Amino acid sequence: MSYNKVEALREKSDAEKLILSNDYIAARTKLKKAQQLFPSLDHITPMLMVCEILSASTNIIPGYETDYYWVLQLMPSSAFTDITCQYQKFVSLLQPIKYKFPATELALKLLQEAYSVLSDKKKRVAFDIKRGTSWVNYESFESNPEKDCNDDKVNGNNINILESGSSSSDVISEGYKGIFGQFIVCIGGRYGQICKISGGEAEITWLKPIPLTEGERRWFDAGFPVACGSFCLDTEKSGTVGLKGVFSYKCSWDSGVTEELYEIYPKKGEVWAVYDDFDLEEWSYNPDIIKGCSFKLVEIITDYSIYNGVECGQLVKVDGFNSIFERQTGETNNLHIGPRDMYMLAHKVPAYRFTGGEIYGVHDGMFELDQLALRNPGQELNNQNMVEDKEPDFLIPTPNPNPQSSALGPNWAATDFTTGQVWATYAGKDLMPCQYVLINNMISPSGLSATILEPEPVFDFETSWKNRNMPIACGMFRAKEVKVNLDISQFSHLVNCFKSTTNFIYKIFPSKGEVWAVYKNWKSGWNRDNFDNCKCWVVEILSDFSDGEKMMVAKLTEVKGCLTFFQRVQGEDGFEMVRGFSRQEMLCFSHQIPAFRVPGIGGHGIPESSWHLEPIALPPNNGKR
Fold first, then answer.
1. pLDDT digits (tens, 9 = 90+) for 361-397
2. Which residues are CB-neighbours of 597 under 8 A, at least 6 positions away?
3. Which of 3, 253, 371, 543 could form a disulfide with 552 if both were Cys (CB 3.0 to 4.6 A apart)?
4. Residue 562's closest CA among 610, 509, 491, 525?
5. How far apart are CA 11 and CA 99, in angstroms?
6. CA gap 401, 310 in Å, rounded
7. CA 461, CA 467: separation in Å to the nearest integer?
């Protein structure tokens, strides 16, 4: 972690030198690399913004020298309120680094110049005329020149603050490849990279998803849309599209583990449509099901995590409005989408978030949604709980954290923790993530108060195991009186569990898609000596735990030459080594190992189906405890 920070600071230093030599694009590339090395690097976002503003200023308009729409990253049809909001946002972002980062003062000056022209009607008209003669065919983009800052009116019961399809002009507002890097847009439910713009058309290279499971591959082969996951450029599929009214929205993305990968996942604060009653396995085998499917709308509460997926809150329509929605309150209206269930997210819905006071009856946190992105507008959203209880007395706890997903061994921050969450912490002489705690509150920037969850035996064999002072990782747990103060570095991962609605009992069992360590040659009659000298297998969970049925797992083995990559073991007959575990045998599970798959890793000689495991959670000494 400290090494990554040192390397990130070195990249930042190089970026500063490049800015002083007016090489803004190269400087931004250096800063992006620094961000990947150490995402929490101080002021990384405003530093990137400085590079983007300075890059935009190099696009010359005769008589003005600078294209001010590019500087403010706005479309020509933007209203006065949009211009003011964007200007204030950028200025507040850059002010803290005004005297700390090279050329920030110049960027602020450019913002002021852009605002002084675009906020003045006469100056803006003159600028637009000169700009129009410079940018041939630019008027091909969807625009509304008559829209003014006072033109937002309530039509019936619907305020038109968000213009459906208007974001198509964002292509020019933020640039294309060579200005601000590779630019990805969503067009009709597909992602594409804009390579060039000319003659009223854009040259597009389409992105294709990289499925990780058999179910995802069947889904993709059936032609269903894929909105989340890892993507790569499909060099065999490119073409041109007209610029007018075809773009849905500009897409935010992150670099994958290899340069050719694009990671597209929901961001905190966005609105997405999710498939109702989604079942990847069944739907991928029966493509006709999707034809009659319906959607629910959700607000993304946490950024995507490779370990935990995302947490969502269900949206419902506000009475008296056609396109304004608000989030339902209460834990039971939250939806957890795990990292293996991301295909449940159908598509992003462009949305405007109200701050309160815009119109009567609309409050802070409400959304106006783009009606063109609501594919089944005639369907009324119901108020049913989106989380299906696996048992009548239990519900899924919320919310999830927002860990950094760029590498294993997360660098946790205070914002990743919320009161009521259950986490696994490193404990025992081997410091494996085998102790569960309930978060109480933060006591310092890097310290938390937590309550230890103690095993609550249900069966005699569990009581006997506990009485021998043996560790228990699966079963029922109770929050009792033992409180501890822990440093952030002692936390491994958020635990998927079920919480009793009537008491402080938590049900914790392995879930499908997780990776666990299992005691090798385990016996129910073990004593402490047996445990201290045991070894562990690593297994992938193939089915969720259910009373009365065996939970199926597949044995994993280390990929040759790769200490942290594991793949399924195949026997001499070519079949994978799979077996079931009964309720009583759940005592042989040692701890969960945080893990995720790496798209595109096959290009480096490692099987695509391999798991990348958290190194410090691997059983020590080649599996010996």
1. 788 888 888 766 765 433 333 332 333 333 333 433 3
2. 212, 608, 609, 610, 611, 612
3. 543
4. 610
5. 19
6. 9
7. 10
